[in-house]
Amino acid sequence: MTRSACLEIHQMNVGQGDSILIINRNLTKVAARITNAINTGKITGSLPSDPIHYVPYAVLNAVDLEGTINRALLIDGGDDEYGGDVLNYLKKQGALRTDPAPYCPDLYILVSHPHDDHMAGLRSVFKQRVETTVTVGKKKVTKVALEPRFRPARVYQTSKNKKADPKTYRFAWLEQDVSGAFAAASNNTKRFFIDPGGFMEGKNDMMTIDLGTGVDSIPIKLYVLAAAQGVYSMKGQYTEIPSTAKKVDQNDRSIVLILEYGSFRYFLGGDIAGSGLAAGGNTGSNAMNESKKKAYSVHADVESKLGPALEKFFPATTAWTANEPKYPSAGYSTVMKANHHASSSSVDVYLLATLRPCVAIVSSGVKSRFHHHPTQEVINRMNKTATPKWGLRPKGTSKTDNTIQQVYVTEVAAVGFKVKNKPPYSVDLLGAQILGDIVIRPVDESIKEIQDSTDGGKQLQVQIYGTGAQTLLADAAPTNVLRPMETKTGAYGPGYIGPFYHTDTH
Predict the structure, then answer these.
(1) Does residue 61 lie within any of the structural domains?
(2) pLDDT tens track for 104-146
(3) What is the pLDDT of residues 349-379, one digit of tens each?
(4) Which residues are registered as beta bridge partners of 407?
(5) What phi and psi values does residue 335 have, to the nearest 5 degrees?
(6) Quick check: is 179 in a domain?
(7) I need a labelling partner for 143 at 20 to 30 A (CA). Which of 87, 134, 216, 272 fits?
(8) What's the whole-model pTM score?
């Protein structure tokens, strides 16, 4: 059977940070670009037989993919030292339009929350460093200026709040960059603010982000279920998440998203936290160690309010109707990105029992302020052998099967890695696979089959592969800093890991 995948979710490897590129791709245009490159002698070979292989083949052969994107959304850009990596990745995937420069009509940007490891790298998209040499007297002096680079069509971020907004210079720079793009004389960036609870500013209902349509004109949309310390509860109302300390924790203000394409869902929770303890269904080796008080965050428990909201607003399918998506459980998500890089106070058992994903993704890595992510507690919670069943809220007495088939991680610190006076890092990944950049693609034909069906039992298929890319920051460090990537299977050519396929029943 021919397979295709128009929806791509790229979890870029930005070390201890986050950057996700979501693309709705026009595969017909990709085929035309590959064919043209072959016919003009730029590359040798032939067009792959299956459309699902077009994009990896094009990227491997440096085929220009500009203009092959229907719409793209960049969520966060890692820390500032990875801004160049993010920029280059976007160029390679065709997500930046250079004709006419610098406006990119197909690119949206969303800032999940204003922490450096999520927002600082975005400056490389908005601005470029330009050096000029001038003569002052008898001396030549190099002057450095930051000039506009690219302007996205839209920017989404939480509404301004004088009390909650951070007073950091990187946040001030972000505001400066977005404001400059917004004020451009022509083709200016549109700015969308998201109020607490996930409402569009000044409106009283859930914010949605439209990425166009996929196979059979099935919509690809993102829903904002929480933002700015509020979880959506009903039209015009939200549940407030009060801070647990005097100072606002920006993690609590993360924008929480559900990406939906037919019966496929992807959950992105930013850096929100749960309980980490029994209140979140975590007991025994799954529970956070409270004795490590310095490592214990003061995050609010957003997950306990988010889980019931997911179950309420994303219910299970009870009647199989043609031309409609089908969901096996309330709150279901095919793939989830682990909240807060899989910190011990996040990704509670109760939230996992709500989402029931078949695949989990972790964005983690190494930096000078090493956070020991992913944590053993979260790895335990997600692993089928360590935790074969998840407890259900409110008390955990009822159980559901652990549904996670595989955990994929961008990169992980080596066993024995140590920063300052902290103990050496020794997390057992329990079979989680390290891929570098991670690409997730639901198979269009499986999306359509479920959409068309009038009964259950159909299989949704998801393809995942990695690039094996380690962060440049780690490349410059001692060789024992990072664990090795998975064996490069080479199915898509040198450097690629995978692809791997996962299915679940709808």
Answers:
(1) no
(2) 999 999 999 999 999 999 999 999 888 777 777 778 777 778 8
(3) 999 999 999 999 999 988 756 778 899 999 9
(4) 360
(5) -130, 140
(6) yes
(7) 87
(8) 0.95
